[in-house]
Amino acid sequence: MSVLICGSLAFDTITTFPGRFAQQILPEQVHILNVSFLVPTLRKEFGGCAGNIAYSLKQLGGEPLVMAALGKDGDLYRNRLEQLGISQQHLLTVEDDYTAQAIIITDQDNNQITAFHPGAMGQAHRLKIEADPRIQLAIVAPDGRDAMVQHAQQLHDAQIPFIFDPGQGLPMFDGEELKRFVSQATWVAVNDYEAKLLADRTGSSLEALSTSHLKGLIETLGADGCNVYIQGVKTHVPGVKAAAVVDPTGCGDAFRGGLLYGLSQGWDLVKAVALANQIGAIKIAAAGPQNYTLDRAALGL
Question: Which of 14, 49, 51, 214 is the most exposed place for a label (fewest CB within 10 A)?
C-alpha cells in the first residue's frame, strides 16, 4: 500500500542554547523583547514534515509518496530522496524561489524557538491529488495554507482516507475551516497544545469531535504517551522511555511515520499509536530529524 504524504520539504538549521529560554525572556518585558541566544553548536539537516514522515515510514517498510514543493536549491533534497529509495513522482520544483528553511533553537529543557521561511512551499497547492489505486492512505501535514485546504478536499473527493495533522499550521485556520478539515478527514492527530487550540477554535471538546465520522483522534503528550479518542472514549497509550534525550526535532514526524505504518497494515488505532510511541522515543535519542535507524526485527515487524 502506498501512502501519500502531503507536507513540507525543508532544510533545517538546528542550534542548541545551553540555558533556559525562561531565564532570558522576562514576561513583564515582552513588549520590548530584544534577546540574543549564544548557540555554540550548529547543524544543517534535511527536514520538513513530509520528508521526516517519509523517512520514518520508509525505514519501517512502508511505501511513502511525498507530495511537496522544492525550490531552485532542491537538487540536494532530490538526491537525498533518491538515496533513500523514496519516489519523487509528486514533487514540484519552483525555479524562482528557495526550498523552505527552518532555523531552530533548542534550550536545555527541550523547549524550541523556530523561525520558518516557507519559500517554495507556498506553491505546493499547484500539485493536485487525483484518484490512484496505488494510494490507499494519506496524511495532510503542515504545508502551504492553500495546499492544505485543497489537498484535504481532493483526498476527500477521491475517497482516500487520510490523517489531518495541522501541526504548526493550525493557527492559520479559523474554527469553521478546522471543522471542515475534521469533517473531511478519517483521523486527526495533534499534540497537547494543538489539541487545546483545536478545541477552542471549533468550540468542541476532543471527546465531542471524536464522536463524529472520525475513526479516531490522537493527542500526543510527548514522553507521557498519547490519548486516543474513539467515539468519545479516551484511551491512554503510555509513553516509551527513551535511551537518551538528545534532540526533539522531528519526533512528532517520526511518530506519524509509525502511525501511518500501523494503519497501512490494517492495525487498530491503539496498536498503531503504541508503535508510533516507540518510534518517537528512538528518534529523540538522535540529533536531527533524519539520522536515526529503525530495526524492524527489534520492533517485532
Answer: 214
